[in-house]
Amino acid sequence: MIDHFGINCADLAASAAFYDKVLGVLGYSRQMDVEVAIGYGAGSPDFWIGVQPAEGPASGPNREIHVGFTAADAAAVRAFFEAATALGAEVLHEPRFFPEYHPSYYGAFVRDPDGNNVEAVCHMAQPGD
């Protein structure tokens, strides 16, 4: 069900130093670093920390969270997106490939009614799906 999740940090450098150390003793390490976000895990980035935005739902004291839900395939990602937008969800990213994550990463991102960033993701999609 849960593919990955992330939190926003007021000070990314301080949080990175913290998570590098505390997750390191548990056997986890940085799997990806995309400057504004760092993914930790053991083989794949399952937990992310990111820069807290200056504006919007994630900028206040109650920061948004990010949850990536596992989708069976690209069609399921599109169905998630269609269902969410039909309910009035704000679109963050329409369904597409995200090659900056990896070549077969296909996802869609929306805001839930509380302002959280929720995503459906499939890791096996191929161009043309």
TrEMBL record:
Coiled coil: none annotated. Residues 1-123 form the VOC domain. Pfam families: Glyoxalase. It comes from the Bacteria. InterPro entries: Glyas_Bleomycin-R_OHBP_Dase, Glyas_Fos-R_dOase_dom, VOC_core. PROSITE patterns: VOC (PS51819). This is VOC family protein. It comes from Nocardioides luti.
